[in-house]
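Q: How would the structure tokens look for this protein?
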Amino acid sequence: MKIHGRVAIITDDPGWHGRCLSDALCSRGYASSMVSLTECAYRLDDGVCTIDIPGFYPQLPDGVFVRGIAGGTLEQVVFYLNVLHGLRHAGVKVYNDGRAIERTVDKALTSFLLQEAGISMPPTWVFSNRTQAMHTARHELLSGYQLVFKPLFGSQGEGLQLIRHVDMLDQVFGYNGIYYFQRFICSCADNYFDWRVFVVNGKAISAAKRSGTHWLNNVAQGGICEPASLDNNLRQLAEKAVSVLNMDYGGVDIIADADNRLYVLEVNSVPAWKGLQKVCQLSVADCLVDDFLSKLKHKKCVQIAEI
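A: Here is the predicted structure in token form.
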């Protein structure tokens, strides 16, 4: 059969998402391999600069689809992102590239860029000094607000704490020395929910309403997805957020307060879509792969033997 190119899917946990992407690529004539950034390397010797991608070396993939970044020490994570930077510098399409991931993996930077662009977000504070953090948190709590304490890095609702009153501050300790507080937006007193809006190539393609059994609505934390219509306000807010962060695709979490004002909670550059797929008619993987392939700079066709 004819193979138009070879793609690396960056992930340490291929699972359902990896299979969906691999199947969509295969149906369009592209071979794919699952690659962990932990197994990649730079080879800089004898005046030659190469990036070793397992299964591709000494060549480079025709494109790289980033599905996940491994955790690790600061040095390891910087190295993983530098592999993506190097691939982009070498002319390989990286989807989303290292720059987009850097802008979204760090919640403080994401919040700053979105707020600076005029996108509505809950009031947010980030400190490395505990005294400053506790002073601000205490002021907010005594003013009648509640706070969500989040790790700077992380996803799927892991590590989040809802701080309801001042007495709870004694149990708050910085994640690796950083305090990230966000004012809690209550969507409804007895029915917590938010929306996940999926944006591809600058366009919101689908949305799901996520309802939790408590204040967290993430599917990974037990939240349930329901179909949701994409009205203009949701669509425009999600599309603007992804545009500001210059992403190929993204998952935008949006919440409404009691007065129906919309706020962006987070933007994810490697969003899961299994819950969304259950409640929408289009194939999210097909939309992603079609956009990804349209952006490949070098397309080729190679005849390989049938096995």
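Residues 187-269 form a domain with the D-amino Acid Aminotransferase; Chain A, domain 1 fold (CATH 3.30.470.20).

Confidence is low (pLDDT under 50) at residues 298-307.

Upvote if useful.
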